[in-house]
Amino acid sequence: MNDVLILAGARTPFAAWSFGATGRGTPGGAFKELDPQDLAAAALKGALSAASLAPRDVNFIAFGNMYQVGPYGCYGARYVGHRAGCPPETAGVAVGLACGTGLLALTTAAGAVARGEARIAAAAGADAPSRLRRDIFVPSFTDISCGKHIAKTAEERAGEAGLSRAAMDAWALRSHAKARAAARLRAAEIVPVAGLSDDDAILEAPEAARFETAKLLFSDGTTTMTHANVHGIVDGGAALILASPKAAKGRALGRLVSSALVGVPPERMAYAAVPAVRQALEQARWRASEVDVWEINETYAAQVLLDTAELGLDAERVNPNGGAIALGHPFGATGVRLVHTLLLELRRRSRRRGVAAISVGGGLGIAVCVESL
């Protein structure tokens, strides 16, 4: 992928869905009138502006949306292009990989550039849970192969490792605190939408006591997973602009070095990011110790803590500006957001190497290695 450069990116704010981000009673629904194509198009316009490009410059759009339902679902990429002002000649494909959809959109767009099918491509992703019927949305997190909710597989893995609820709560507290401290940095990613200019699920004043009294995620007597130490459910979109070196004309945030998509047994699905990272590192010929910044999706505090330990990472290099526990996890947009955040943080630190990874429902893991330029 040395011939694929990432020029710029942008995202919408992430807005707590209509039922509140994490069951804390926080009001939500700021984007309840917007569909995924609206959100992705807003992000794509912002990314094009950041890259000093016009909509007509884009040859190809890969659009990721977890559910692809409703009147626009199967033609999602085309509608994103139309709403962003791209001409009819701009090709587009819709991709899906549950929580890993955004990273799949990135690698799909990168493939079009690498094969010479596009000089300039966009990777966009969005999800709008507020627009989904709950009988579609809620059951989708239980895998029919093993009959388990993905969160339950994380909890079982935590139990095997002896990971306590206190450790999970501490990580969740850290996520909110770091996100609060990074407001100025986050502003460089975000384009305002519908009167909202920042993520609205971040706790104003996170306190340990608030996590200790949080509602349990399951009703089977467990004492580890709660609505406060898992990701927030939000509506949002994100986009990245990719180009060949010739089309980039010397402008780029970074380059895509390698990617990996792997499978594990469904009952171990919360572990899947680990083998994906290892494969991506092997392809890049990097060691984990050589990576400067990590963005590991905070699907659950348990999962990111165990991934960090399993890979032998310095926790200070993992999600340094907070993660999905604070910001929220708009499924199709998350992978795109992770890579953009990663490249901006590498540039800010004057560092080079970064990895983004996501554990995906069904027993899949996806990871990418990027290098700042």
Q: Can you describe this structure?
A:
- With 373 residues, the protein is an alpha+beta fold.
- It has one domain: Thiolase/Chalcone synthase (Peroxisomal Thiolase, Chain A, domain 1).
- Helix content is 34%, strand content 19%.
- The chain has 13 helices and 12 strands.
- Strands 1, 2, 3, 4, 5, 8, 9, 10, 11 and 12 form a 10-stranded mixed sheet that branches. Strands 6-7 form a two-stranded antiparallel sheet.
- Strand 3 (60-64), helix 2 and strand 4 (91-95) form a beta-alpha-beta unit.
- It is globular, with a radius of gyration of 19 Å.
- The model has no long low-confidence stretch (mean pLDDT 92).
| Whole-number tally of structural domains | 1
CATH topology category name: Peroxisomal Thiolase, Chain A, domain 1
Low-confidence stretches: none
Helix content: 25-40%
- Shape verdict: globular
Radius of gyration: 19 Å
**Which second-level CATH architecture applies?**
3-Layer(aba) Sandwich
Features:
373 residues, Peroxisomal Thiolase, Chain A, domain 1, ten-stranded mixed β-sheet
Please summarize what this structure is.
This protein is α+β, with helices and mostly antiparallel strands and 373 residues long. 34% of the residues lie in helices and 19% in strands. The mean pLDDT is 92.
What's the layout of helices and strands?
Layout: E1 5-11, E2 15-16, H1 36-50, E3 60-64, H2 76-84, E4 91-95, H3 101-114, E5 120-127, H4 134-137, E6 142-143, E7 148-149, H5 150-161, H6 165-181, H7 183-186, H8 208-212, E8 234-243, H9 245-248, E9 254-263, H10 273-284, E10 293-296, H11 301-311, H12 324-327, H13 334-349, E11 353-360, E12 364-372
Parallel strand pairs: 3-4, 3-5, 10-11
Antiparallel strand pairs: 1-8, 1-9, 2-8, 5-8, 6-7, 9-12, 11-12
